[in-house]
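Consider the tokenized backbone below.
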């Protein structure tokens, strides 16, 4: 019967749950899958989430379907291990998130007025989450901001939480002044202080840059991803121009590559798609 389920392409989530049970079976499963635990699988979970975001960024919808399946498998994997340890099950996880969504949307599933602005709904959402944290004995303002988030995103979320209780600069001008101050301290640390102190000052500068993004309404993680993509695109343009002249980057020098970089930028701004 289990084999029938495993090969039934129309069986949906129950098929995937059974596949995972078979993979984790101590006697007949896959040795690699049997050896895994929450900690060893967590990096794959993070990686799959980024691959979902990458497919969305590239608008590759066919690939997104596969990446979403990979991400779903991560949830199935963790819940299988949770069930084996008697901690939770796939069904209890589904029930938990379903209950949470109903509780957090009283204007949809309850008797609250749905006629609210997006800003008011965001405030209500945050109030509900704060009450949930209080119920978990997470009374601190910063409690519940996941330590495992990418550092830039976590900085953004920590500052957002602090701002809710009034710990924030009132204007972007003050944030920019702080950036100038931190940049000066970094230069001073580089020239006169230890490597450890330079490391710390560099972190302070990045932290304030994340805060500037929040004040400007810019997600710093998304902005940096876009900058990474732009750098990749333009450097590939430099490589293409070098290749057209029979050269590679290591056969060039900074002056030549910088001039080609400027040409690629100008090409982009002119709206041209050809590399030359």
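A designed sequence for it:
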């Amino acid at each position: 019967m289990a084999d029938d389920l495993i090969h039934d392409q129309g069986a949906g989530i129950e098929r995937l749950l059974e596949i995972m049970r078979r993979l984790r079976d101590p006697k007949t499963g896959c040795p690699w899958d049997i050896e895994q635990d929450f900690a060893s699988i967590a990096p794959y979970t993070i990686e799959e989430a980024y691959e979902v975001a990458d497919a969305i960024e590239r608008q590759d919808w066919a690939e997104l379907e596969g990446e979403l399946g990979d991400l779903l498998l991560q949830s199935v994997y963790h819940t299988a291990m949770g069930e084996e340890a008697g901690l939770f099950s796939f069904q209890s996880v589904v029930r938990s998130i379903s209950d949470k969504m109903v509780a957090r949307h009283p204007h949809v599933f309850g008797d609250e007025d749905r006629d609210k602005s997006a800003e008011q709904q965001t405030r209500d959402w945050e109030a509900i989450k704060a009450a949930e944290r209080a119920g978990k004995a997470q009374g601190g303002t910063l409690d519940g901001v996941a330590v495992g988030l990418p550092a830039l995103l976590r900085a953004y979320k920590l500052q957002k939480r602090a701002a809710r209780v009034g710990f924030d600069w009132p204007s972007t001008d003050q944030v920019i002044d702080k950036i100038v101050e931190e940049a000066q301290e970094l230069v001073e640390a580089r020239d006169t202080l230890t490597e450890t102190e330079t490391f710390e000052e560099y972190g302070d500068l990045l932290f304030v840059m994340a805060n500037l993004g929040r004040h400007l309404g810019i997600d710093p993680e998304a902005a940096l991803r876009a900058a990474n993509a732009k750098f990749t695109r333009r450097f590939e343009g430099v490589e293409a121009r070098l290749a057209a002249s029979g050269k590679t980057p290591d056969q060039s020098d900074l002056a030549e590559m910088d001039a080609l970089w400027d040409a690629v930028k100008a090409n982009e701004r002119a709206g041209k798609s050809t590399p030359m």
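The domain at 140-218 is CATH 1.10.287.1080 (Helix Hairpins).
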